[in-house]
């Protein structure tokens, strides 16, 4: 999914990016509230964004988390995101309900359905579109981005699809769609050590999971009010556990829990995020935008950095205007 904000905020983020003055240093879990972001376009879809924000910009290499739905929809085009660019990142699409058709300039055409992951590596540059299908009556899911490390961020773009098996551990049901957990490993490509899994618990259930102590971990709660390491995390919120623990304990409470467990080793690099680009400097972001506008929007070069999306019945999405200041850290 594109970041369709008409005036996207500029962020220069570093690892760790924590406001220590606001953090409760006695708590084993950092609690991040979502903010509602109305995305542009004719339908003005609203998402709940828990990364990035002032208190924290990254969990491992995870740099962007948007949750949306459940939203009743009618037919094809209920989600209609025109071709748009990405650089320096991987997009991770995960659905709870609905069906979305993905097309990209690497030549990929794929559907994503609940329990499946679409992972697109933008690398040096790619463009893609996302359109809900006629079969979709409800949209509900999460869109996440991973920042690529500097050594890998100029790789040629590519696309992968994976259907993780359902596994049981204690009271929990899990689907490991990225990285490894509990002896299950995803087949999709990662460039830093990472973890992504859907975690479900029945009401009153609990689970203790052995994890990599070198990872930061986050629990993106979709439904329920669980306790993570003994700390309550509200629905739609993100609970973050810093690196160190060798186990994570999640308790469901009075309602069933559905959440995503994400994690990874700290990225340890400064990155600049603006609109749909991840780079390393203001000037690099400016160059990405200029290439997109010239090569794709103005049509100067059909086979340039971002290529061409075949089969989408419409025009690509123009980039917003850059702010009148250099991209810099938020206060």
Automatic annotation (TrEMBL):
This is Pirin family protein. Coiled coil: none annotated. InterPro entries: Pirin (IPR012093), Pirin_C_dom (IPR008778), Pirin_N_dom (IPR003829), RmlC-like_jellyroll (IPR014710), RmlC_Cupin_sf (IPR011051). Residues 198-294 form the Pirin C-terminal domain. Pfam families: Pirin, Pirin_C. CDD domains: cupin_pirin_C (cd02247), cupin_pirin_N (cd02909). Residues 46-146 form the Pirin N-terminal domain. Belongs to the pirin family. SUPFAM superfamilies: RmlC-like cupins. It comes from the Bacteria.
